[in-house]
Amino acid sequence: MIGGVFALGVTAAPVSAFTQAVAHGLVKAGRDKLMIRGLTAATCAVAAGPLALVVEPPAPGLWSWLALSAALHVVYQLFLIRAYEGDDFSVAHPLARGLAPAATTIIAAVWLGQPLSPMAVTGVICVTAGLMAIGLRGAARPAAAIAALAAGLLTAVYTVVDGRAVRIPSHAETFIVWFFLVEAAVMVPLTIGLRWRRLAHTVRQDLRPGVFAGLAALVGYGLALVSLRILPSGAASALRETSVVFGAVIARFALKETLRPVRLAGIGLTALGGVLVAIGL
Question: Alpha-carbon distance 143 to 235, whole Å?
């Protein structure tokens, strides 16, 4: 697989990894993590709204994919919030992403017929092992660890679903734009309903990080969908989950968390896996 389009897919995934790590770091740093996720969804919808006037409207068959994707993403976010509330970012973030590359590769190979080369599979294994080493080594709170692992499994499922939907002929741009609108249509009312009694206060205290997280998420997942359009889902997932490398930098220097040698080794293994995936495609 060669050419400019392939290069775009390989480049989009790591850039998505960086912006994803920024968005997740802002969620972790926020006072009310649910509110930040609600503001993130609202920001994405406001930014994507004008584009909905440019792209083709969703065809009847695309609505089911949009609804399924939005449902998976919202449930994933609720598990992720629980994980971030209960553990350090340097532990919860790798656990939440750790199962995704291997699980995505297996599901995509079976359901979408997207097998990877031996070298790419080796890279996926390295990424998964590195992420789990980072997270499991420091997980001290079982409830948070279980929530993070559940988020990881949901990441694999929504990655495969979105990877299938974005490949529907002539509907890629429509799915990318309308994904943000449909997700916000679920996440924003849910956030308002759960925070109704102190809505104004939580919006004021978390407005800035919520908006910045939204802008990062818009770029990050928009590029992730571009990558899923071009690359096999398992490879795109593995490259995107190298976000843990950027997440480690955020954890150390922005959140002032301690990174032990085992976690640093896991970060190196994850980065190596990402390189192997890119070479093996």
Answer: 30
Question: Is the CB of residue 35 less than 8 Å from the CB of residue 114?
Answer: no
Q: How confident is the model at residue 53 (pLDDT cuts 50, 70, 90)?
A: very high
pLDDT over threshold 60, residue 148: yes
* Of 160, 126, 139, nearest in space to 95 by CA: 139
Q: Is the pLDDT of residue 61 over 70?
A: yes
Mean predicted lDDT score pLDDT of the chain: 87
How many other CB atoms sit within 10 Å of the CB of residue 191?
A: 26
Tokens of 166: 């974005």
Burial class (CB in 10 A: 0-12, 13-18, 19+), 90: buried
Residue 115, sorted as left (phi over 0), alpha (psi -120 to 50) or beta, turns out to be beta
CB 74 within 8 A of CB 183: yes
For residues 227 and 41, what is the distance between their CA atoms, to the nearest angstrom? 21
Is residue 59 exposed (0-12), middle (13-18) or buried (19+ Cβ within 10 Å)? exposed
| Chain segment 207-244, per-residue pLDDT in tens | 999 999 999 999 999 999 999 999 899 888 888 877 77
Yes or no: say if 98 and 132 are a contact pair by the CB < 8 Å rule. yes
CA atoms of 84 and 36, how far apart (whole Å):
12
> What pLDDT was estimated at residue 140?
56
**Which has the closest alpha carbon to 249: 90, 30, 24?**
90
pTM: 0.87
Which 8-state DSSP code applies to residue 74?
Answer: H
